[in-house]
Specification:
The chain has about 400 residues and is an alpha/beta fold. The chain folds into 2 domains: about 5-260, UDP-N-acetylmuramoyl-L-alanine:D-glutamate ligase, CATH 3.40.1190.10; about 270-410, Protein-Tyrosine Phosphatase, Chain A (Alpha-Beta Complex), CATH 3.90.190. The chain is built from 15 helices and 17 strands. It has helices at about 5-10, 30-45, 70-85, 95-110, 145-150, 155-160, 180-190, 230-245, 255-260, 285-295, 315-325, 345-355, 370-380, 390-400, 410, and strands spanning about 20-25, 50, 65, 70, 115-120, 135-140, 170-175, 190-195, 200-205, 210, 215-220, 270, 275-280, 305-310, 330-335, 360-365, 385-390. It has an 8-stranded mixed beta sheet, with helices on both faces. A hairpin with a 4-residue loop joins strand 9 and strand 10 (about 210). Helix 10 packs parallel to helix 11.
């Protein structure tokens, strides 16, 4: 890991942005934060560009310009541009992520943008996105994930994520209890640190919520269209970032209200109405699964909860299954179409080793769609089906569009 190779190719490409750049790092909440930023800025009349990863179904989902997903043909010349720069004056090797990041950054930098929103793929300090100088940095939640690369604890991982900060530039930390390493690094380099609970905060009841920051308040806000208790924390970080950039990009209160009310992001506690109800969530670490469990618990009563689950082999699956396990009646473990994935039989064995519910059942399936089909066949209309885990798991059931469930019992 390192930025030397990416920086060499980026310099050969003369890769630079002529607009403000917001870089977003964190364990969970990055995608939601980027989506809410984009929605508010679109409502304010700006032309945002957004880079996120990974994708659910199609690669081009990783880049949106002015609110629209780019087309494959838009990307091709920029892939060619990266390849030309990579091989000129001495060949430089790049990973898949580094190569594709440079291509998308090239497309964004050559487009008429008012602001660029860049999501870090992994960590921060050594992530390919960090070759671009951010105008404002956001650090969302910091928790345990990708520990083989980032370190064994929150303090070490936080230090890596803090690597996107810059001297004299605002950095928004929306984690309510951030690692001390994040605060220390901001202090050491002289960043303009915005801390949740000190520089900004939120209050709310069941109907509405309010936000207060440095010298500005918003009251009577509708809840973000993205579901889940953790989304107010993410939205608070978004409002802090917009406040920090107010002198460069003023955003009205109405644009914020409209943006938060209209934001969309597939696979983040996405509830698809129907019978049975269907919930899609890309929770794939213990912190995200804890939030998913809380959100599922708040949905109300369902006679039976069916869960489709697939995950990467490097994930610490046991605590995830243990956390959500009390809510799950039937598990459908699935293989995923990548060598990095854990086998369904392995996931089932981990579940069996820690299962405390004697009435729960489990089965294994060749892929997410096969697992979903089995769940639909077994479900009653009043039940719910939850698909969670890797992006490959959720993407596997979205590959043919948003599923519209109609349990067999309904047609009889």
């Amino acid at each position: 890991m390192g930025l030397d190779r990416v920086r060499t190719v980026a310099e050969r490409m003369a890769l630079k942005f002529a607009c403000p750049v917001i870089t977003v790092a964190g364990t969970n909440g990055k995608g939601s934060t980027c989506a809410m930023l984009e929605a508010c800025l679109l409502e304010a009349g700006y032309r945002p560009g957004v880079y996120t990863s990974p994708h659910l179904v199609h690669f081009q989902e990783r880049c949106r310009l002015h609110g629209d997903t780019v087309q494959p043909d838009d990307l091709l010349p920029h892939f060619a541009r990266v390849e030309a720069a990579r091989t000129q004056g001495g060949e430089v090797s790049l990973t898949y992520f580094e190569f594709t990041t440079l291509a998308i950054l090239s497309l964004m930098a050559s487009s008429p943008l008012d602001v660029a929103i860049l999501e870090v793929g992994l960590g921060g300090r050594l992530d390919a996105v960090n070759v671009i100088e951010p105008t404002c940095a956001i650090v969302t939640s910091v928790d345990l994930d990708h520990m083989d690369f980032l370190g064994p604890d929150r303090e070490t991982i936080g230090r890596e994520k803090a690597g996107i900060m810059r001297t004299g530039r605002p950095v928004i930390v929306s984690d309510p209890v951030p690692p001390q390493s994040v605060i220390d690094h901001a202090t050491e380099i002289g960043a303009d640190l915005w801390l949740f609970g000190r520089d900004f905060n939120f209050t709310g009841d069941k109907q509405q919520w309010g936000w207060a920051g440095r010298g500005r308040r918003y009251s009577g806000l509708a809840y973000p269209a993205l579901r889940g208790a953790n989304q107010l924390v993410n939205a608070s970080g978004v409002l802090a970032a917009l406040e920090a950039l107010r002198s460069e990009m003023p955003v009205t209160a109405q644009a914020i209200r409209n943006g938060l009310a209209m934001v969309e992001l597939p696979g983040r506690f996405q509830i698809i109405p129907g019978q049975p109800a269907l919930v899609l969530d890309v929770a794939h670490n213990a912190h995200a699964v804890a939030a998913l469990t809380e959100n599922l618990d708040a949905m109300g009563f369902y006679p039976t909860t069916h869960v489709v689950f697939g995950a990467m082999a490097d994930k610490d699956v046991a605590p995830m299954l243990a956390r959500v396990g009390p809510l799950v009646d039937r598990w459908y473990f699935c293989d995923l179409p990548t060598e990095r994935a854990a086998k369904a039989v392995h996931l089932q064995a981990i579940w069996q080793a820690g299962n405390s519910r004697k009435d729960a059942q489990a089965s294994t399936h060749a892929g997410p769609q096969a697992a979903l089909d089995a769940a639909v066949a077994a479900a009653d209309p009043a039940d719910r089906i939850v698909v969670f885990g890797s992006f490959f798991t959720v993407g596997g059931v979205l590959a043919n569009g948003i599923p519209r469930l109609d349990a067999p019992h309904l047609s009889s």
